[in-house]
Amino acid sequence: MRIVPSEQVQALGHCVYTTLRIHAHQLLYWDGHMERLKSSMDFFGMQPEIHPELKSWIEAQTLEQGLCRITVTETEVMVSFRGFKPIPEKITVMLTDQVVHPVLGLHKTGNHLPYALAAKEVQQSGAFEGLMWDASEQFVVDGTRAGFLLQKNGLFFQPLGGLPSVTRDAALREMGIQAEHVWVTREDLFSADRLWLCGSGMGILPVDTLKDQGEERNFTSSPLPVRSVGLIPPRAPVNR
């Protein structure tokens, strides 16, 4: 295993990876990330060993806080680090025109083109994040860099068809609630009571506004009742 510059690993094609949050030199939700990463390695037939001492080795290298990406190719394991991206006070999410691959979208892979195209739409619109469609373009399944969770009539729902979110799973466990896996339509999003983004680099982040084709839906921006540092947006203080 070796440390590689972040921009170099992002250029890799045939690889799988996971991104973990670092807090106080500790990698958060390690077991969940390793379970998802090893599942992807098995699916794509990648054989490099995840060394038992990898976690302690990384933690000895890390910054006090930030993000660590573990990338696996057919022949090696690579590690890279970066800081958090700024999070604005108001979170606007848009629906992009891009489609997630029906198989690759279930894994974190080096196939970045759909996400890069969606991210370009997001940047041009001035939004914070963009959501993407399944191959049928009927269902919204994932974001360019985060999953999502929605609430309607007091019930929680998470999308089918996208990457399983370690951060979302951790939040649901902490709250002791169930979120049904459903195919999420555009109408489901616009009729939801609340919407959150879920990811290592942002924790559980409440969405203020959803936009699509000139239509806007404003939500009551309400943080989930979670206390673990890995679930709180990096800009926010941790409640003790």
From TrEMBL:
The UniProt record lists the keyword Lyase: yes
Pfam family, one: Aminotran_4
Keywords noted in UniProt: Lyase
InterPro entries per record: Aminotrans_IV, Aminotransferase-like, BCAT-like_C, BCAT-like_N, Class-IV_PLP-Dep_Aminotrnsfr
Magnesium among keywords: no
Residues forming coiled coils: none
GO annotation (BP), single: carboxylic acid biosynthetic process
Gene Ontology terms for molecular function: lyase activity
Entry superkingdom: Bacteria
Family statement: Belongs to the class-IV pyridoxal-phosphate-dependent aminotransferase family.
Designated name of the protein: 4-amino-4-deoxychorismate lyase
Organism: Deinococcus cellulosilyticus (strain DSM 18568 / NBRC 106333 / KACC 11606 / 5516J-15)
